[in-house]
Amino acid sequence: MEQKENTRELPVFFLVKTLLFSYILTGILLALLAFLLYRLRLGEKAVSAAIIVIYVAATFFGGFVAGKKLESRRFLWGLVMGAAYFLVLALISLAAGQGGIQLGNSFLTTFVLCAGGGMLGGMLS
Q1: Which of 8-12, 51-55, 98-102, 119-123 shows the lowest per-residue confidence on average (mean pLDDT)?
Q2: pLDDT at 79
């Protein structure tokens, strides 16, 4: 008789796939925003608002997928996914070298929006 091993491991690879899904969605939505910016000559405030909506939407859907797959503690996995999304986003911004990251209101607000979007997606999954 074969026994099943009941080991619980962290779903790291699944979270990486979920992050990849979120970044692909972000890329598609940013490309659409760039097209709209080109065609409609949107203002700076509209573009800034659209970027925030894109971040929240990408983390929401990533958190939703993570919550559906992992089934327990959905809000926590959504929060982890949103925070990881922000961390990668911050590291890419730092690597781009735009004068460094300043820890101001915008930085913290973006973190809260990304983590909150992922958590909300996990809760609603």
Answers
A1: 98-102
A2: 92
Arithmetic mean of pLDDT, 98-123: 82
CB atoms within 10 A of CB 57: 16
**How big is the chain, counted in residues?**
125
User: Is the pTM of the predicted complex or chain greater than 0.90?
Assistant: no
Largest CA distance in the chain: 69
In angstroms, rounded to a whole number, what is the distance separating the alpha carbons of residues 65 and 22?
Answer: 10
Closest by CA to 21, choosing from 72, 67, 65, is 65
Report d(CA 58, CA 52) in Å as an integer: 10
Evaluate whether 125 touches 78 at the Cβ level (below 8 Å): yes
CB atoms within 10 A of CB 107: 14
